[in-house]
């Protein structure tokens, strides 16, 4: 009965302690060969490399930065910094005592400062939307911006793009030093709302460039949340608004998918509740790169579409002649694995966690604004009175205890709340773009934006069907013709 | 600027080593309170409890079972065992030198053995579909089976349900001892196909009960794959076939979601490449319960539907008055968390990994069958010749290297291959049920089954729209009226 008396445990297996333990239990006799795990070998080797570099990796050069703060932004050179020493009070009651925003610009601001276009980015993008003399690397929207470009013509527009607050490409985020002790904020970073992010951007626009009114606010995905929030918060400070593959309020399905990403990342033993940045006491801490990779893989599932995968990968395996393995094996698996791996050392895991949650929390409802306004005012009063020592901690000790099992408002009440919150946007020139193959921000969410604004005649609604794009949520990064073209036509003017 | 000079690091934080390290880095001064992580505290406490119980948990009573094999099946009492000492040769070239299948029955087999209905289960179910004198606990299809029941009337039918091979509720699976050394197979377990599973069942049906022809083969989800495979492999041995929320071949989108679940589970430090079962050398090993919980959370995202969550949870948080946290916070998050937690100690993680992959691999194509037949024959020849010592290992050393980036067959070729493989099913009385709100096995996959069979007049196709069920893939567990009713009417006969 003993078909394989020779052990087929792989040659890598005796490399380190954990593998030895495995080998111990897997005796030399087995009815079938033991499975090999090259994907896990690779992750363990990477951890070891990172540890040997004293907790840093190529893109995270912690040792050379002050306060041991990892400097993800460093690898993205060529941006400028707007610094504010005035505190930013936040929608959930926190505060940034001071902050900075990384930004880049293309084109020139005209005399009356009327040709500025602010680009808001998605969760993981930097301010580098386009190459420039200061950074010749292609930007994430390289083909959509430039002199004479059909979408954003830099001969006519002054284009600004920022790294969002909470990010890790130069703007203040969880990897930045907390002014209170100069150590990284980590999970002492305050929770941000999308509205907080655009309030920071608005200071930059006004104080750095003396722009009273943007010609346009343009964003896709989380950026499309920002452009709507900009119009809601500063309706007088923006002429035209473009929102692509976004929504007026997050949906529980999207929250569920982002929840999974966050929990997976937080379960990485190297995450250490956010305090994974190397310090003098703990020089060998390493990034939770496995958790980050897995989180990105789950995210990637939501970025493209089933029909694209069917035509590209189908259900083919790398090699039909060998038995199936639990490491990446189907083509679709190797694609996800590669996407996760690419990202895992490129982005600060804490930034990912915070901004992912910020997206979940996005809600243009009136009640949401009212609560936010109250909390910001409280945070400001607290700072002025300086009596915070006596304030009870504002964190629930056991938020985990789920005593509330169902929603307490009806779907209709919540919708009316949302409609009311969006009233400031009514009358704005607004372009709403949706993509039928997008499962993360499904097309009905863009239709809902239009409906909630009462089908305003100033609204232009473009919906790309499956014959136009199978690229799902990622369409805005790829589709120059339909997305770029629609935006270009909408922004047409007589500068 | 120092708003919160009093540290608000939670009281649990000094409990163990890891927490101390966290506290070390989070100094006593911070601009905002540090976030708390009750969900992580809870997981760490559970790990400690499991360690103190010497690697076992309430449902995994390893110490009392022979060979230190955890006995998930033990808590599911009342089943019988079919044991085969004849090897089962497998589609991917492996072998089970001997095996057992746990099963339960309800009703009585009639004289000519013509009234047997075989129920095939989904991935995680046991043989306990219905309560019985031997086990009074409600079964997973409790309301769908019983004397006079509209779906499966046990006064008329002899109902059999098995735990699938690869499972952990009594049938041979990765937690079972490998006869070669009496240690748990772990990841030395051979990969199974759905066809392998039903071949095992067919031996039980024939050898244990002398049933030459089943009256019906009935299954949902992975069970619906099995009933189709049964009809394909043994068209003469089954009269009627019911397949609910299943497909003829897995889709890359479903593979992507299951891939994520597997990778997350395998990343758990306690998984140890499958060798987490406590042994004499390693008595303190514990289940990778965190990875299992996270995998189940991701799976749960695919089991229900967005509209259900919208009406049940919306975007409400547990408590709007406290700042958002990264632990479960939205109602939808607490739901997913609870679902994951419930499952995390109830199921063998290796069984989950293997059967998840088995679902990915499901494919009724002709080419798939041809390859499988060849490999099974090879495995058998190898056993007979006993020359396996000289065989090179059949595992690819580096399956990770993705050199093949795109599919090599066209969508049309693959469809024709599938159509051909399904020819043996043509002419069978077949009920195909699909659910419009199911995102995991979308309704077009059930329509495809019907189309591939040439729209055979013996096929009955039922499609539940959103007004009938918003329960998504889980509908088959819940919908007595539409699912149960349709099956009951289809099985009507004159016994």
UniProtKB/TrEMBL annotation, chains A, B:
GO terms for cellular component? mitochondrion
- Could you tell me which residue ranges the AB hydrolase-1 domain spans? 115-363
What are the recorded Gene Ontology BP terms? Answer: cysteine biosynthetic process from serine; homoserine metabolic process; methionine biosynthetic process
What Pfam family is a match, any one? Answer: Abhydrolase_1
Q: Which GO terms describe its molecular function?
A: homoserine O-acetyltransferase activity; serine O-acetyltransferase activity
Composition bias (Basic and acidic residues) maps to 368-395
Renumbered to this chain, region (Disordered) spans 366-395
Q: Which family does it belong to?
A: Belongs to the AB hydrolase superfamily. MetX family.
Q: Which PANTHER family match?
A: HOMOSERINE O-ACETYLTRANSFERASE, SERINE O-SUCCINYLTRANSFERASE
Name of the featured protein: LALA0S05e03400g1_1
Q: Which organism is it from?
A: Lachancea lanzarotensis
């Amino acid at each position: 009965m003993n078909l394989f008396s020779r052990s087929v445990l792989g040659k890598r297996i005796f490399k380190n302690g954990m593998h030895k333990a495995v080998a111990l239990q897997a005796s030399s006799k087995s009815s079938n060969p033991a499975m090999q795990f090259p994907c896990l070998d690779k992750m363990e080797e990477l951890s070891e490399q990172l540890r040997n570099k004293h907790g840093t990796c190529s893109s995270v050069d912690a040792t050379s930065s002050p306060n041991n703060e990892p400097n993800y932004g460093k690898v993205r050179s060529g941006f400028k910094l707007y610094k504010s020493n005035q505190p930013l009070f936040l929608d959930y009651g926190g505060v940034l005592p001071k902050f900075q925003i990384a930004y880049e610009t293309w084109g020139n601001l005209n005399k009356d400062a009327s040709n500025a276009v602010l680009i808001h980015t998605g969760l993981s993008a930097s301010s580098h939307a386009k190459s420039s003399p200061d950074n010749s690397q292609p930007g994430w929207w390289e083909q959509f911006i430039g002199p004479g470009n059909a979408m954003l013509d830099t001969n006519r527009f002054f284009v600004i793009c920022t790294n969002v607050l909470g990010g890790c490409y130069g703007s203040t985020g969880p990897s930045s030093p907390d002014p209170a002790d100069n150590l990284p904020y980590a999970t002492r970073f305050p929770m941000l709302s999308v509205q907080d992010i655009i309030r920071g951007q608005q200071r930059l626009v006004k104080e750095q460039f003396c722009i009273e009114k943007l010609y346009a606010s343009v964003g896709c995905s989380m950026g499309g949340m920002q452009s709507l929030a900009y119009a809601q918060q500063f309706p007088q400070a923006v002429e035209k608004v473009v929102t692509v593959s976004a929504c007026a309020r997050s949906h529980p399905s999207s929250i569920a998918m982002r929840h999974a990403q966050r929990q997976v990342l937080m379960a990485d033993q190297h995450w250490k509740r956010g305090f994974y940045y190397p310090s003098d006491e703990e020089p060998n801490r390493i990034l939770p790169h496995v958790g980050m990779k897995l989180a990105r893989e789950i995210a990637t599932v939501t970025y493209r579409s089933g029909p694209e995968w069917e035509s590209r990968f189908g259900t083919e395996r790398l090699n039909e002649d060998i038995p199936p393995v639990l490491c990446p094996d189907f083509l679709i698996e190797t694609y996800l694995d590669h996407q996760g791996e690419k990202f895992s050392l490129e982005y600060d895991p804490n930034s990912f966690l915070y901004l992912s949650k910020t997206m979940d929390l996005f809600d243009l409802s009136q009640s949401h604004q009212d609560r936010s306004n109250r909390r910001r005012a409280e945070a400001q009063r607290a700072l002025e009175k300086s009596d915070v020592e006596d304030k009870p901690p504002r964190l629930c000790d056991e938020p985990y205890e789920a005593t509330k099992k169902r929603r307490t408002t009806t779907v209709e009440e919540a919708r009316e709340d949302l409609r009311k919150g969006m009233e400031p946007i009514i009358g704005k020139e607004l372009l709403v773009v949706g993509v039928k193959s997008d499962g993360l921000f499904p097309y009905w969410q863009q239709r809902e934006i239009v409906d909630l604004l009462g089908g305003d005649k100033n609204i232009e609604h473009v919906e790309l069907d499956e014959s136009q794009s199978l690229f799902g949520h990622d369409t805005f990064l790829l589709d120059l013709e339909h997305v770029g073209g629609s935006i270009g036509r909408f922004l047409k003017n007589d500068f």
